[in-house]
Design goal:
The chain is α+β, with helices and mostly antiparallel strands. 44% of the residues lie in helices and 31% in strands.
Length: 235
C-alpha cells in the first residue's frame, strides 16, 4: 500500500522477470524480421538465378542451332563452288572442243576445195595452176622457208613435168626492185606429177631489202609458163 507524504511519493517496484520477458519478445521480433528478410532475399535470388539459367539455356540452344545452320550453309557453299568449278572446267573443255572442231572443219573445207579444184575446176582455171604459197621465217634475218602447191586441174591425162621459179619485188634504198632470191643450189624445184605436187625450199633476201610481193612461175615442158603473184605475207 503506498505511503503518502507531503514531500515524497514511493511507487511499488516492477518485478525483474517482466523486463526479461519484454526483452525476449523484442529480440524474437527482431530475429523474426531478420529471418523473414533473409528468406525473401534468398527467394528473390533463387528466382533471378533460375531466370538467368533459363535465359542461358535458351541462348545456348540458339547458338547451337546457328552453328548447325552455319555449317550447313558452308557445306552448301562448298558444294556450289565445286559445281561451279566443274561447270567452268566443262565449259572450257567444251569451248576448246568447239574451237578444235571449227579449225578441223575449216581445214576439211580447205582440203575439199583443194580437191574440187583438181577434179572439177572451172574452165578458166583448168590445166596447171599455182594453188597455194606459204612462207615463214627460217630463223635468221632475211631467211625464209616456203611451200608452193601446184595442181593440174580437171584434165589429168598427161603427166606434168617442168620447173618452178621465184621472184620477189620490193624496195631497197628507196628504189623499186625485183630480185631472184638466193636459194640453196641443192633444192631443185622440179615438177613431175599428174594431180598435184608440193615443193618446199628456202631462200635468202639481201640486207635492207623490203619485200612487197612474191611471184611464182611454173614452166611446164611443152606448155606456156603459168604465173601467180602473192602479196608478201610477212611484215
Amino acid at each position: 500500500m503506498p505511503i503518502h507524504s507531503p514531500n515524497l511519493v514511493v511507487s511499488p517496484r516492477r518485478p525483474t522477470w517482466q523486463y526479461l520477458l519484454l526483452a525476449v519478445l523484442a529480440l524474437a521480433l527482431v530475429l523474426a524480421s531478420v529471418w523473414i528478410s533473409y528468406r525473401r532475399g534468398m527467394s528473390d535470388a533463387g528466382y533471378e538465378q533460375g531466370a538467368h539459367a533459363d535465359e542461358r539455356s535458351r541462348l545456348n540452344t540458339e547458338i547451337r542451332s546457328l552453328k548447325q545452320s552455319n555449317a550447313e550453309l558452308r557445306g552448301l557453299l562448298a558444294a556450289a563452288e565445286r559445281q561451279l568449278q566443274i561447270d567452268r572446267t566443262g565449259y572450257a573443255e567444251l569451248d576448246e572442243a568447239l574451237q578444235t572442231s571449227t579449225r578441223q572443219l575449216a581445214d576439211l573445207r580447205k582440203e575439199l576445195g583443194f580437191y574440187q579444184n583438181i577434179i572439177s575446176a572451172p574452165e578458166d582455171r583448168r590445166g596447171v595452176v599455182v594453188q597455194q604459197l606459204d612462207i615463214e621465217p627460217a630463223g635468221k634475218p632475211g631467211s625464209y622457208r616456203f611451200e608452193v602447191i601446184v595442181i593440174q586441174a580437171y584434165n589429168h591425162k598427161n603427166e606434168v613435168k617442168g620447173r618452178v621459179g621465184l621472184r620477189v619485188t620490193g624496195t631497197q634504198g628507196g628504189e623499186q626492185r625485183e630480185i631472184k632470191p638466193q636459194r640453196d643450189p641443192g633444192e631443185a624445184l622440179v615438177l613431175r606429177f599428174r594431180y598435184f605436187q608440193k615443193l618446199r625450199g628456202s631462200f635468202d633476201l639481201p640486207e635492207g631489202f623490203q619485200p612487197q610481193q612474191i611471184v611464182v612461175t611454173v614452166t611446164p615442158d611443152k606448155q606456156a609458163p603459168v604465173t601467180r603473184s602473192f602479196e608478201w605475207p610477212l611484215t
